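User: Last request for today: this protein with glutathione, please.
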Amino acid sequence: MTKLVLYTLHYSPPCRAVELTVKALGLELEQKVVDLLAGAHLKPEFLKLNPQHTIPVLDDGGTIITESHAIMIYLVTKYAKNDTLYPKDPVKQARVNAALHFESGVLFARMRFIFERIIYFGKSDIPEDRIEYVQKAYRLLEDTLTDNFVAGPHMTIADFSCISTISSLKGVVPMEQSEYPKIHAWIERLKQLPYYEEANGGGGDDLGKFVLAKKEENAKA
Ligand SMILES: N[C@@H](CCC(=O)N[C@@H](CS)C(=O)NCC(=O)O)C(=O)O
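Assistant: Here's the final one, the structure of the complex with glutathione:
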């Protein structure tokens, strides 16, 4: 098997989603850190890999795959011993795809709208409507969790994708256990994974803390 290389940053939720997938599959990976704050993703050599200048990017023996959801599907399809993380059955797969798109189009998009305002635009306030949009997203996730995992009774890559964002977002927009008991139970379930802490635990908390610290710093500037 060729060596897998992941262009990544531990702060980044989609990178952590891929790291969870890699660990779940028991794959070895070389990590190349892309320092977004230093603009490493805008350098010509990185733009050659991904003209959309986002991380994560996977290099599998010269085959370049961009975008976390596409990377996770690729890794499971190519390397998994069974299809539980991304089922081949069209109905089950459609449920996973729906949850992946929910992460991309709702959770991550709404998180980004707050986090980038603070990190890149130097703001120290979070407008009420942006907070409400996140709370609505929490409600949608809570109502989606009719089973143990986001796409049914078994853990899939959609759980990795959603937890990577939720674990950072909840540090900035509080998520009360009494209001969202199913989300809290789901988070606890995923935390039991032996590789959770290394792949998502620290990074998830750290990004939330980084955004809050930056918010304070911006307020003083
Ligand atoms: N849908 C993409 C989102 C990737 C993304 O936006 N990554 C951020 C870091 S969390 C990034 O690279 N931002 C730099 C940029 O957009 O220029 C995925 O899941 O891979």
